[in-house]
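Long-time lurker. I teach an intro course on protein structure, and each term I like to show students one example going from raw sequence to a predicted 3D structure in token notation. This year I'd like something fresh instead of my usual example. Would anyone be willing to generate the tokens for the chain below so I can use it in lecture? Attribution to the forum is fine with me.
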Amino acid sequence: MSPHSHLLLDGRNTLGECCFEDPRDGCLWWTDIEGKQAFRLANEETLTVYPLPDRACFILPRESDGFVVGFPKQIVLANQDLTAFTPICTLEEDLPHTRCNDGDVEPSGGIVFGTYNEHPDPEERGAISSFYHLSSAGVLTRILGGVRTSNGTAFSVDGSTMYLTDTPVGTLRRFDISAGLPAFNEFDPLASKDVAPGLPDGGTVDSRGNYWSARVWGSCIACISPDGNLLQTIDVPTPGPTCVALGGRDRRRLYITSLRKKRRPDDSDPPAHAGGLYVADVEIPGLPQRLSRL
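-- Reply from a regular --
Happy to contribute to a lecture. Here you go:
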């Protein structure tokens, strides 16, 4: 029988995303993209809600105070209480239907993130989005195109492998990378779409190099070994788990964000606790969240 997660916080996020445990304060952070909010949970008990001026598609911690935040068409630096924002760069201003999406800190302190084609007509969501690298010096470089929904950004324990996925395609792709990402080479994918139910959304890597994939519309989290074998799945009592983070005591708590949106307009209403924060205990500890040098 697969292990189960349980509801930790009934946040009812429309689109909960980008969770991480901040090594600077030990708190769990995440966003509700559509709700234009960020959240900080201390000791799994005390919740602080931060209203934002726009949709925060990702939020990532810095070595100094504050965060790197991905708004739909702009990457900014934010102060610690998310009340002041300094723009770094703009994105895809010639593509009105794309917005920023999933991202993570890469080993040299920059960030890798992608964009998402959110055209209101799903039939018009062509592969016009991309993945980008924003260096610690603030230099933006497009590194991979032909994407519809960028997701799954993560890095191996030693920092030599980058993981990316395009959610509708479903393949978990792997790339050899060098310091600072001046170049990278794709090699055999980690796993195909059918490795587990659902589609790959956010992902993270544990201390043994296993890749944990949130399987949106699959009601589970998949743990995949570095050689591509499915080690286990963890059931989530909602259709749309979106992102995962390993933290808590000994980093053996798996935190899971989720969404309340319907996949299709004619789908039934989501479960009562959809959009909540879920948690499960796992055997293998995670890695500390990297801090950006931006």
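Some talking points for your students: The chain has one domain: 6-281. The two ends are 44 Å apart (CA to CA).
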